[in-house]
Specification:
It is built from 4 helices and 14 strands. It is an alpha+beta fold. The N and C termini lie far apart (131 Å).
Length: 234
């Protein structure tokens, strides 16, 4: 009987030790979980930088991907997206380019009928003239825009959708950007005409020479060329 009692006592002691170990393990596990939570609480929050939303027409212009088949401009703080001109409109720009090609060849200049953006220094508006005349090393704003102060002449051909833009807004901007000569070809006026604006003072063209289409016009300095406007009679 004595041997049996001692065995039972020994068994109870072992069970108490196992219970104590289990409690200690749970305590240790709880301490580890608390330490993990404490470490997580100490971690700095992760910030995700979202793309900046354009706040101006110029910033939106810079963020746009190419839009084939459309003319994208910034005109007096407005983003203007318009379809390319009619075939007749394009042909007139090409006729002007052809007429000035010998002059470009002689003087080492470059002429292009449409498709080139001109960045207006100051407000950074971006215009696409129907024709641009420039030196080969004209300074640029970024890789894709000519700086207006390095351009010698631009031309715009008025269409029904661009009457106010070409006759008013672009005339102001080209003068502000110090483009020496702005040639306005207006085949839809009551009397179809060609007008050369020049002599900039205080950001405004001071001189205007206007002829009826079919009459030669003297393009002012630095172009110094007599243009036969009958090429625009179609």
């Amino acid at each position: 009987m004595v041997a049996m009692v001692e065995e039972e006592l020994h068994t109870d002691t072992v069970e108490e030790e196992e219970h104590t170990d289990a409690v200690e393990q749970e305590h240790d596990s709880g301490s580890a979980d608390e330490e993990d939570h404490a470490d997580e609480a100490k971690q700095e929050p992760t910030w995700v930088r979202l793309p900046r939303t354009p706040s101006t027409a110029r910033e939106l212009f810079d963020a746009l991907p190419p839009l084939p088949g459309f003319r994208v401009e910034v005109i007096e703080g407005k983003l203007i997206v318009s379809p390319m001109g009619t075939p007749e409109h394009t042909w007139m720009a090409v006729d002007l380019n052809n007429a000035l090609f010998p002059l470009c060849k002689e003087r080492g200049w470059r002429g292009a009928p449409g498709g080139l953006n001109v960045c207006i220094e100051g407000p950074r508006d971006s215009l696409i003239p129907d024709y641009v005349l420039t030196h080969p090393l004209c300074p640029r704003w970024g890789p894709g825009e000519l700086l207006s102060s390095g351009v010698m002449m631009v031309a715009e051909i008025v269409s029904p959708s661009s009457v106010h833009t070409d006759r008013e807004e672009k005339r102001r901007l080209y003068a502000l950007g110090r483009v020496p000569v702005y040639l306005l070809i207006d085949p839809i006026a009551d009397e179809p005409s060609v007008t050369a604006f020049s002599d900039i003072e205080r950001g405004v063209y001071q001189r205007m020479t206007r002829v009826i289409i079919g009459t030669p016009i003297a393009l002012p300095s630095p172009v110094d060329f007599k243009l036969d406007t009958s090429i625009f009679m179609g």
